[in-house]
Amino acid sequence: MVVRRALTTAGVLGALWMAGCAPQRPFEPLSTAEAVTRAERELQPLRSFRSKGGNLGVLLTDEKGSHRFPLGGLNVLFDGPKSLYLSASVPGTPAALLIGSNEEQYWLGIKPQVSTLWWGRWKYVDQPCNEWRLAAPNRLVEALGQVNIRDLSGQYLGPVVQNRKPFHVLMYLAVDDEGFWYIAREIYLDPNDRLSVAKIMYLDPQGQADMEMRFADYRFVEDGEHQGYVPERIELYWPKDKSHMKLKLGPIEAREEFHPRAFQMPDKTLYERAEQVDIECGNE
């Protein structure tokens, strides 16, 4: 009786599965060339879009403890590869967060309590002389779908694929201060339905995570020939700083053009303080 009941239950569950859900694609290992080729063909990121009415949750940890900021009214303008405008506010208060970048500069502004604008230049974004850590613009741009599968900048060696079921993991190597190679970046590709980026990890020479980005709920947006995928849920973690940022995008609209001033850095005089994060890198 027990065996029969188990078989009957299995049969019912199997029937429900076949009737209501399509089985997942069997995991098939890929070579590096196959993984890169498929990723470049199937990721199809939306290069330019607008999203309005989302939410942003921020957790920041400093010497005084952890601070949570639930922000609403998330508005995002994005025109790849570098132009970004992101704003959000604390409901019922004048507090507001502004993050942006263009081809030359990037910035983070907080008002009114802090009333500070931090800003820097793209050409120094990954340099040791740059003091910027959280919400780095190159990581935010990548989080919005502009993932660089082939590193053409020469920053990394790779990728090389490692098949870790259920993911195909693209690994990228860098050289530490002592001249040793280490795995500095990993892109986790989810093979179900189509290849999509599930997670990106940035690692230090000791193998500890400097930053982790997670992506979910990809949405296909189409407006004529302007089309592609955007992750509606994006989470950015900085484990060493015990901080994170979680975005839930609102309705997404494909856009081909934006106002010329959409990605202009705000006037520094609108803030009580303006701090250049890469001032040690030089003035050229």
Structural topology:
Layout: H1 2-20, H2 32-42, E1 48-62, E2 65-79, E3 83-89, E4 96-101, E5 105-111, E6 116-121, H3 137-143, E7 157-164, E8 167-175, E9 181-190, E10 196-203, E11 209-223, E12 226-238, E13 243-248, E14 252-254, E15 273-276
Parallel strand pairs: 6-15
Antiparallel strand pairs: 1-2, 1-13, 1-14, 2-3, 3-4, 4-5, 5-6, 7-8, 8-9, 9-10, 10-11, 11-12, 12-13
Give an overview in words.
With 284 residues, the protein is mainly β. The chain has a single domain (26-281), classed as Lipoprotein localisation LolA/LolB/LppX (outer membrane lipoprotein receptor (LolB), chain A, Clam), CATH 2.50.20. It is built from three helices and 15 strands. It has a 15-stranded mixed beta sheet that branches. A hairpin with a 5-residue loop joins β10 and β11. The model is unreliable at 1-22 (pLDDT under 50).
As for the number of domains, it is: 1
CATH topology: outer membrane lipoprotein receptor (LolB), chain A
Low-confidence stretches: 1-22
Summing up helix and strand content along with how strands pair, one would put the structural category as: mainly beta
Cα-based radius of gyration, to the nearest Å: 22 Å
User: Could you describe the largest sheet, including whether it forms a barrel?
Assistant: 15 strands, mixed
Please trace the helix and strand order, writing H or E for each element. HHEEEEEEHEEEEEEEEE
User: What overall form do the CA principal axes indicate?
Assistant: globular
In the CATH classification, which architecture applies?
Clam
